[in-house]
Structure formats: C-alpha cells, structure tokens
C-alpha cells in the first residue's frame, strides 16, 4: 500500500498522506517523495491547483519519531534530515499554483510544517494544531519559523513554539493557523480551488512568488525574478485571451501560456 496517494480530476490534484494506522506520521521516505510529487506538478499543465490532506481522521501527527534512532541520532543526521524536510516544504511553497491543506484531527509538528507551506489551510471542527518541538529538544527549521511568523505574528509564534501546546480549530483560526473552518472542509476546499483554477495561471504564479518572498522579511524579494513573472504574463497568450474575453463579455479560457 502506498504511503502517499495522488489523484487528479478537473484540474485539481489531491495528495493524501496514507498512513492512517500511524495517524499519517511522515517518514523520511515520504518527505522525499512529497518533494518529488510537488516538483513534478510545476511541469504538469493539467494540474491547476492542489489539495493536500490526510487519509482517515488525522491530517498528520508529524514526523515519524519511531525512526529517529536510526536516521536522526546526531547533529549530522539531523542536518541531513532537515534538508529533506526543507526540500519538501520548499517544493510545496515554490509551486506556482494554489495549494490548500485540508486539516482534520491532529496536525502536529511536521504535519504543521506541511500545512504552513501551503497557501491556505481549511479545517473542520476536529482540527487540533500544535508544534511540540520544545518537548523534544528540537529547534524548528528557519523557513518554517518564517512561515509561522508571517501567518501568526511574533507573539503567537513565540507562544506556539515556547509552549508546545495544542490548539483547537477556533483558537487556531484566531491565531492565523487556520484560514477557514467548515463542517465539510474537503468539499469547501475543492470548491475554492475550482474557482481559483479558472483564473490565469501566470497571474497566480507571479503573485505567489512575490507574496511568499515579501512575507519572509524586507530585502528577500529578487526583483529581477519578479520582473520575469511580470514580463511572462504581459507577453502571454493568456493576457490576450483575457482582453478578448473582457471585450466579448465571456469567461476567459486560460491555458497558462
């Protein structure tokens, strides 16, 4: 049985962590596979948006600590492990397409790491989010701390990281960890992604790049790269299609080129 399931329909890819018996704990092999999956989505024009979820009752309890004795036993192994984790979250964050994490049950530690890398987080009322690194003597990775800070602000980020507490859906939303709460979060997320998938892919890719870079702090935006996104959209067939559709009073048919 595969630990990660990928299904595609109507322009939306659904990526599901598939270790429900282990509450979808993420192994080192899964971090690496997720990085590959999201990297390949960048080249797949049939994928316009992505939904990331967990099979069963939980999104993910985080990294599979049961394998730490063999793969993360000292600072060298820990550094190698963090490279794989950062490559995974980096691939999710860098994908120039909308990504929504659908959170139910536990979303802890490494699971939160995955959710933070997504553009949006939709939860149901069973969602419980937390980062227990302070109870494991682990310092959360720099990029994930940056994402946490940009979403929650410094006071809440400190509370989350210092306390290692768990937060139920309503409190998590008030802190910025969840964007929306729904009784049927997967359906709400799919409906939202279908709406976004109809918009111009080049516009979304450019906006995502700039917002992600700007949110990590002043001076981090590569202005030349941002201009490349602007120029690519301005010189695209989609831009011409958008103008035609506006003039003809119809919905545009964007192709991402």
From TrEMBL:
Belongs to the enoyl-CoA hydratase/isomerase family. CDD domains: crotonase-like (cd06558). The lineage of its organism: Bacteria, Pseudomonadati, Pseudomonadota, Alphaproteobacteria, Hyphomicrobiales. This is Enoyl-CoA hydratase/carnithine racemase. Pfam families: ECH_1. PANTHER family: ENOYL-COA HYDRATASE, MITOCHONDRIAL, ENOYL-COA HYDRATASE-RELATED. InterPro entries: ClpP/crotonase-like_dom_sf, Enoyl-CoA_hyd/isom_CS, Enoyl-CoA_hydra/iso.
